[in-house]
Amino acid sequence: MATELAHCTQLTPSGRLRHLLTLTDMSRDLIEELLERAESYLRPPGEPPARDPVLRGRTVANLFFEPSTRTRASFELAAKRLGADVLNLDVNMSSRKKGESVLDTIYTLQAMQVDVFVVRDASAGIPELIAASVEPHVSVLNAGEAAVSHPTQGLLDLMTMHQHKGRFDRLSVVIVGDIARSRVARSAVEGLQIMGTRDIRLVAPPGMTPDEKLYPGTTITSDLDGALPGADVVMALRIQRERMTEKAQMMTTHEYHAKYGLTAERLMRATPDAIVMHPGPMNRDVEIAGDVADGPQSVIVQQVTNGLAMRMAILAMVMEARRDR
Ligand code: NCD
User: Fold this and answer.
1) For residues 257 and 259, what is the distance between their CA atoms, to the nearest angstrom?
2) Which residue, 24, 152, 227, 254, is the most exposed by fewest CB within 10 angstroms?
3) 247 has a pLDDT exceeding 90
4) How far is ligand 1, taken at its centre, from the CA of residue 122, in Å?
5) Domain that holds residue 312
6) How far is the CA of 191 from the centre of ligand 1 (A)?
7) Do the Cβ atoms of 321 and 136 come closer than 8 Å?
8) Residues above pLDDT 90, as percent of the chain
9) Sequential DSSP letters for 14-69
């Protein structure tokens, strides 16, 4: 499907963001622009949230064919704070369950003048298929595609690292968990490499090792203690049980935590000011100890705040790119 649709580019002829499907063909400049725009939507705690009426009169449809809490809530609030009407399609009630093709659902909603589709789906290629099929003024934003990509998460992760660490080029980043099934890891690594990060260490427990062809230029290991020294960023990931097809010889959660859990003791191997990240949802005391998740090095809550600001930035930028379509 991907080759067939390779002509569907996410950028307009002048390089503006029309759709957000993947980070792979994004330039450093475009990512920097998104980071700046997202920063402009942050407000100090206790103050009213930023609003910007750039989507007034527009309609955003959230189509989540897979569960989501953070991503869906933050896209909804982001669209509302930009002045859009928001439609949240309840997947259990939707016609997709009755066998309607995803494109028929899209055409139906497009006939109701939806301007932006935010799509999460368990099948690879769906955001690209939709982007290749919608009218020229309509945008598609990938909110999580199988184990393939999660570009808005990648961007909010970059934003969070940038806030704490400034430059990307001398950063050492450790990502630990179910790398093989993680779209979060894919997009984080793609984004970091575009921004110039060279030291990326992927720690995968047995059965969770990714295809190394998908991760050129990274170090893949199963030794967490060996990977942590010198790390500036440590990102823990959830075991993606819902994507396990084979009966993986899974360790018990207790064993997993003992070997691969990010504990306070382990974290001491990283640099003293290393930040701890997790995309959520977290399994406390499995991939991350509760006290680390709530501890002074954790930026997990800030990732959520940044996610909303980043989704506002993306929505605003695709709307502005309409001018040169
Ligand atoms: C992630 C996802 O859905 O890919 N969650 C998220 O978007 N914050 C990670 C996960 O489900 O483990």
Assistant:
1) 5
2) 254
3) no
4) 12
5) 2-149+305-324
6) 17
7) no
8) 86
9) TS-BS-B--STT--HHHHHHHHHHHHHT---TTSPPP--GGGTT-EEEEEESS--S
Same domain, 66 and 197: no
Which 8-state DSSP code applies to residue 262? B
Residues 97 and 185 reside in one and the same domain: no
199 and 217 part of one domain: yes
Å from CA of 325 to ligand 1 middle = 32
Same domain? 128 vs 17: yes
CA of 145 to the centre of ligand 1 (A): 10
pLDDT at 8 over 70: no
| CB-ligand 1 contact for 182 (6 Å cutoff) | no
Name 58's Cβ contacts closer than 8 Å, sequence gap at least 6. 83, 84, 85, 115, 116, 319
Domain count, the chain: 2
pLDDT at position 95:
73
Q: Are 18 and 104 members of one domain?
A: yes
Nearest residue (by CA) to ligand 1, atom 12, is 238
Mutation test residue for ligand 1: of 150, 156, 301, 305, the one with most atoms within 8 Å of CB? 150
- CATH code of the domain in which 236 resides: 3.40.50.1370
Q: Which atom of ligand 1 is nearest to the CA of 182?
A: 4
CA distance 11 to 30: 10
Residues 6+ apart with CB under 8 A from 45: none
Whether residues 173 and 277 share a domain: the answer is yes
Give the tens place of pLDDT for each residue, 285-321.
Answer: 999 999 999 999 999 999 999 999 999 999 999 999 9
Residue 280 and residue 164 share a domain = yes
Q: How far is CA 90 from CA 52, 65, 66, 93, 140, in A?
A: 27, 9, 11, 6, 18
Is 309 in the same domain as 185?
no
70 CA → ligand 1 middle, Å: 8
